[in-house]
Please model this.
Amino acid sequence: MLKDPACLFCKIVAREIPSTAIFEDGEFYVFPDIHPKAPVHLLIIPKDHVMASVADMQDGQEEILGAMLHRAKLLAEQQGIADQGYRLVFNVRHYGGQIVDHIHLHLLGGQPLGPLG
Ligand code: 5GP
Ligand code: ZN
Model:
């Protein structure tokens, strides 16, 4: 399924819900998290509803994850947070704290983030 009409992030990609575009190409859309947990908190999402989470990845979808990480690396440089470092997070399903079931990568930085937990 490439679009899920009930999916919040599909609606954001379709501009049915407003967001600020930080980056967009044919494959990915990047926008700020509405509840930022750090001075820089971006969400990197495939424009298509290709999988709900890492746990739902199918054989052959490995390149999508690699491309998301590569996009995060480039965005961190663009945002000026690469030298000091940053955090990349995939929340996975209920216990992982995932709320939106459209795969997304959190890019957090701009301050020391400390240990997890
Ligand atoms: P998850 O917990 O699923 O990994 O992350 C989903 C993220 O989406 C949360 O950090 C939440 O703050 C963010 N979010 C939820 N609704 C909206 C929205 O309407 N706009 C934006 N920009 N972010 C949202
Ligand atoms: Zn979706």
